Prior knowledge:
The chain has helices at residues 9-19, 58-73, 91-99, 110-113, 133-141, 143-154, 194-202, 212-220, 231-236, 262-267, 270-305, 315-359; strands at residues 45-50, 78-83, 105-108, 158-173, 187-190, 206-209, 227-230, 245-248, 253-261, 309-312. By secondary structure, it is α/β, with parallel strands linked by helices.
Amino acid sequence: MRHFRFRLWPVWVSLILALTGCSDGQNTGSGDNTANAPEAPEYPVTWRFALEEIEGSVQHAYAEALKERIEERSDGNIEVDIFPYGSLGTSVQLTELVRNGSVSLAFASPGHLANTVPEVGLFTLHYILPEDAEVTRQLLASPKLIDLFEQPYADQNMKLLGFVPEGWMAWTANKALRTPEDFKGQRIRTMTSDMAEETFRAYGAEPSQIPYSQVYSDLQLRKIDGQSNPVFAIEEMDFYEVQSTMTLARPAQFVASVVSNHDWYNALPENQQQWLDNGLKDVAQIAWETQEELNQTRLEKMLEEGQLQVVRLTDAEREAFQQASMPVRDIYLERTGEGGQRIFETLQQLIAELENDNQQ
Ligand code: 6CS
């Protein structure tokens, strides 16, 4: 298995916390500081960007591309320091670091974030996103979609900067998962929010929330039977080494969100805000292409290695999962109230509009 530096987390987290506000040459937005924003920042200014994935991943490629654009646009006045997974903490800890202003930017995947921002639990639901790749790309890049989630993130002191698609989720286990009955009794690892468990529970599985860093060893030790992730991640985290079968059911896209500390973003001088906003626009298309390429090449690599059996579900088989997943939509709506209802309905309208536009 690839080597992570998880044992050093506490040291790194303390170091980062100790450095907060020192190297930035400007305030980092941790509440009170924002009131006395300095007039002229001392350049270069460092922005810390925390990732939920290791080097070579979709998030890492995105962060590298964003770093390059921002450093170029700012003429070297901004330096972006990237912290891949393993250097700072679990997804939940990264969210805390961005909320308290210790890091400027972070990835926050809905599957982990849904206990803090229940509305993003939407992305843990199965069979609600479009089948068509182009419609999905346009949907996830749509400012209308981002607007929908802006307030729920802001309520938790996070500025939602964008959604990043990472490809279809695939299920791995030590057997094929062709029907919901095949999930019965399977101990399935999910991301660390209650909402992430619900669909697997609806299929009859026994879900458990486990941090990403622990999945490989739990699979290896047979503490769990299976898990769900995009293909590129199954390869790069070596899950395929300790699972016999990958089932491609295209139940949901893995959608990550890029966030910053809300106060930090609002306190940025105008030119810095523009460098950031424009950098984010520059990389949106790159992100889509990167995930397509990584998911394809890593699938080929795993197929070549011949260790993992790959099962593609038929439309009829997928239909059975869609039916079994439907009650989970009600759970989402119960947990998110009117706000969730509005988001859910607007999402469906947006998809219908985009499908219509793309057919013309
Ligand atoms: O399964 C997870 O926990 C993780 N999966 C990916 C592909 N990215 C980040 C997330 O934490």
